[in-house]
Write a sequence for this structure.
């Protein structure tokens, strides 16, 4: 099963994802955030505290999460929580600014699919940006656009989606 949790920042996406992941004895937390400055470090510490005692094995992997497929497949049955896709998009984008959006979209979605094929339960957390063109510079607009494209591709691929709306998450089962 592959689940996508989409919401605005600080909407409780991580708490929901952790709750879903805890159904499995073997749990992996794929941390994609690279701390830039004090604020980034504070966010990372907040997430670490939130999952204390939940028995996650944390793997820091800011790019190419598909490379973890073989390693995680040997722990079946397991759940793998990716926190978060929007950080992954930013990391992939800034690692290769010369690539086209289409090439980056393909690379990121293929990496997610590779990981999904290797684990029993993949939970993807991602941000939803409400205003793509709200005075951002061109680089930020590209990041927001690419994140939206990745979210759409993953929405089409996932078995279940939770969308944040009116203060709560609404599940949508896919066929």
């Amino acid at each position: 099963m592959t689940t996508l949790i989409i919401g605005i920042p600080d909407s409780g996406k991580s708490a929901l994802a952790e709750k879903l992941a805890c159904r499995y004895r073997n749990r992996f937390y794929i941390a994609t955030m690279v701390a830039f400055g004090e604020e980034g470090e504070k966010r990372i510490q907040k997430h670490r505290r939130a999952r204390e005692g939940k028995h996650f094995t944390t793997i820091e992997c800011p790019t190419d999460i598909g490379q973890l497929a073989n390693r995680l497949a040997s722990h079946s049955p397991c759940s793998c929580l990716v926190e978060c896709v929007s950080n992954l998009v930013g990391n992939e984008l800034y690692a290769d600014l010369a690539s086209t959006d289409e090439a980056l979209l393909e690379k990121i979605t293929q990496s997610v699919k590779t990981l999904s094929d290797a684990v029993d339960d993949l939970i993807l957390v991602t941000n939803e940006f409400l205003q793509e063109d709200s005075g951002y510079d061109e680089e930020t607009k590209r990041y927001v656009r690419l994140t939206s494209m990745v979210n759409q591709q993953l929405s089409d691929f996932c078995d279940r989606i939770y969308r944040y709306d009116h203060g709560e998450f609404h599940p949508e089962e896919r066929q």
User: Anything to note?
Assistant: The two ends are 11 Å apart (CA to CA). Strands lie at 2-7, 26-31, 56-60, 78-83, 121-127, 160-165, 168-173.
